[in-house]
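Task: fold both queries, return tokens.
Query 1:
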Amino acid sequence: MCRKCGKKIEISEIYRNTLCPVCGADLHSCINCRFYSPESHFGCKETVEELVADKERSNFCEYFSVNKGDFAGTDGFSQKSQEARSAFNSLFGN
């Protein structure tokens, strides 16, 4: 899935210049990687040596591995967590 638009993509290999066929976003990027973790050092669960400033742009990271999890959009919340958040907020009238 593309983390930018949340659409499922049928691409067998992702290279540095591979784009999402739906929204045109870079697919070889931090936000599409299974090691992406905003709360980790440099935003990565791997031991990267350098900060990748723009997590949505293509990069040369050799640790890149496609995240095959369920997510929708760049906020990182799946549909299920969005529903839970909405239910929680409705309890307090937000």
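Query 1 returned. Query 2:
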Amino acid sequence: MKTILITGAAGFLGSHLTKDLISEGHRVIGVDNLSTGKMSNIEGLLKNDNFVFIQENASSEEWLLLNSLSDVREIYHLASPASPKYYQSAPLETIAINTIGTMHMLELARRTGAKMLFTSTSEAYGDPDVHPQPEHYRGNVNTWGPRACYDEAKRLGEVFCYEYFHKFQVDVRVARIFNTYSAGLRSDDGRVISNFVEQALTGKDLTVYGNGMQTRSFCYADDTIRGLKLMMEKESASGEIINIGNPTEYTILELAERVNQITGGNCRITFHPLPVDDPKQRRPIIDKAKNLLGWEPVINLDEGLRRMIQVYRSANREEDR
């Protein structure tokens, strides 16, 4: 049994990962300040002897001196708002968790000898002028705009990881995660898939920003979590940045039409102004993940949407009772 620390443990991916690792017999210390995470995501774990929850911010220092952290062998640093809706409403906190918080986790890894995985983002590529995106592409990011608090903070978090790896030999790995979704994504998250599914199931218009021709690649959460666990497990991932995402690309308009089809609805699609700095295209090259991890996604968009829609539909029925 390993002791594993997960920041952002009550969030979308963090709670999924926490449950997986506990089911495998590990002890998990979960940290979350509940700014975007929800206790309902982990309430079923609170009586589990292999789970300890600490309600703290990873960018604060006090809790890092707890004796219980001395046995930590792996650190997954997932804490951060990930939806524009949330990180743009808390820009300074978003910057802090991805920079100061990342440095704190690296210091903890240095002190305990733990391995660490930092979840960065495809937003590190900005609005890319290289398509699809390999890990060596340096990106096209605007530092003076409403998305910079997230994507630039993640990029600086990667720099911290680089320095600790080279200066202190901390065993760190960086995952650049592309759009991830599943039934666990909260319906008010504000990201495109949760928006469309919630709108379709409640008979509202599907709101497309821009002309709908911008593209994204959508990876089901089970595949993303499997990729993160392999990155932690494989020594070949040490000191590497690796794209974790689905390389199949869809336009936003295609996504809206698929959601309409799978929900059995016929919602009207409406068009609205594109947000500032919204990327026009996004698709990962995952050759590195295939070669170093033996990983690639196995759940296609239609299957993932069916799973997600089924759970959302059941939740809406429960609310109506």
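Both queries returned. Flag for query 2: The chain has two domains: 3-180+219-244, 182-216+248-282+299-320.
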